[in-house]
C-alpha cells in the first residue's frame, strides 16, 4: 500500500494535481471499469472504489465524467450492443 501511495503522490506532482484530486480520478476510472464490466449495483461500485455512499460517488462521477454512473452504464451498454450489430 505504501508503494501505491508513493506512486499516486509522484503522479500527482508530475501532473500538477493535488493528491486528493489524483485519488479521486483513480477512483472514478475504477468505477467506470466496474460499471462497464460487472453487474454490481451503483452502491456496490461506490463501496468497491472507496466512496462512503452512492450520493457522493454520483456527485464526483458527474463532475469528472460529465454524467451519472447510471447514465454511464446505460451509454456504455448501448455502445457495446451497437458495436456487435
Describe the structure.
This protein has 85 residues and is an all-alpha fold. It has helices at 2-14, 19-37, 42-49, 54-65, 69-84. It is 80% helix and 0% strand.
Q: What is the structure about, briefly put?
A:
With 85 residues, the protein is mainly α.
Features:
single chain, 85 residues, mainly alpha, 0% strand
Helix content: over 70%
Total helix count? Answer: 5
How many strand segments? 0
Report the radius of gyration as a whole number of Å: 14 Å
**Assembly annotation:** single chain
Distance between the termini: 43 Å
Major sheet summary line: none
Low-confidence stretches: none
Taken as a percent bin, the fraction of beta residues is under 5%
The succession of helices and strands, N to C, reads HHHHH
Please tell me what the overall shape is.
elongated
Compute the average pLDDT. Answer: 84
The class by helix and strand makeup works out as: mainly alpha
Q: What is the strand and helix layout of this fold?
A:
Elements: H1 2-14, H2 19-37, H3 42-49, H4 54-65, H5 69-84
Helix pairs in contact: 1-2, 2-3, 2-4, 2-5
Amino acid at each position: 500500500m505504501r508503494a501505491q501511495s508513493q506512486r499516486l503522490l509522484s503522479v500527482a506532482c508530475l501532473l500538477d494535481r493535488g493528491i486528493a484530486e489524483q485519488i479521486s480520478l483513480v477512483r472514478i476510472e475504477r468505477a467506470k471499469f466496474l460499471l462497464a464490466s460487472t453487474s454490481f449495483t451503483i452502491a456496490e461500485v461506490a463501496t468497491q472504489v472507496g466512496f462512503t455512499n452512492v450520493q457522493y460517488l454520483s456527485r464526483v462521477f458527474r463532475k469528472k465524467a460529465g454524467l451519472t454512473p447510471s447514465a454511464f452504464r446505460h451509454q456504455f451498454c448501448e455502445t457495446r450492443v451497437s458495436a456487435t450489430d
